[in-house]
Amino acid sequence: MARAALAQLELARILWIPTGAPPYRRPPVASAAHRVAMLRLAITGEPRYQIDERELAPGHSGYTVDTLRSLGGEPVLLLGADQYAKLETWHEWREVLRLASIAVFARSGSSIGEGRARVVPFEPVPISASQIRACLARGEDVSAMLPAAVLQYIKLHRLYGHP
């Protein structure tokens, strides 16, 4: 998705912002430090990728609108079609639309509608993070689903139930 955004939206960079522990959902399974370390390993070699840890700071609300306010500038918010479909349920969603341009990754042939977002066509990879975590917990091979350095990190730190 990030590569498609760089190419099709002509972005100068992708800012990866790991989420903290927002009050509106269950906390992430791995600690913030582990998630940042894995992300760093996953994006190594692409100078246009950067990590921004602001949502991990104590007291951050975890709401996208607050992150966008703190970013400033003219950001492009990259969303999957599933999250875009729920946008109107987000905290201060109208302000999110005011603060950022929206780009949505949609499967071929799907319609986003309303013209509030730019569609980024791409062929999705049929792998989800929850699927990877479930496979790891069962001891299944996930080497085709993750960068080798990330899988090595998971094994070293025994994350996600990996034996």
Account of the 3D structure:
By secondary structure, the chain is of the alpha/beta class. It is built from 7 helices and 5 strands. It has a 3-stranded parallel sheet. A two-stranded parallel ribbon has the order 1-2. Helix 2 (32-43) packs antiparallel against helix 7 and helix 3 packs parallel to helix 5 (93-99).
Annotate the secondary structure layout.
Blueprint: H1 2-9, E1 14-16, H2 32-43, E2 49-51, H3 64-71, E3 76-80, H4 81-85, H5 93-99, E4 101-106, E5 117-121, H6 129-137, H7 148-157
Parallel strand pairs: 1-2, 3-4, 4-5
Helix pairs in contact: 2-7, 3-5
What key attributes describe this structure?
163 residues; alpha/beta; three-stranded parallel sheet; two-stranded parallel ribbon; 5 strands
- Summarize the biggest pleated sheet: 3 strands, parallel
Oligomer: single chain
Number of strand elements: 5
Order of helices and strands: HEHEHEHHEEHH
Question: What strand line-up does the widest sheet have?
Answer: 3-4-5
Radius of gyration of CA atoms, rounded to a whole number = 17 Å
Unreliable parts: none
Roughly what percent helix? 25-40%
Q: Specify the overall morphology.
A: globular
The number of helical segments is: 7
C-alpha end-to-end distance: 30 Å
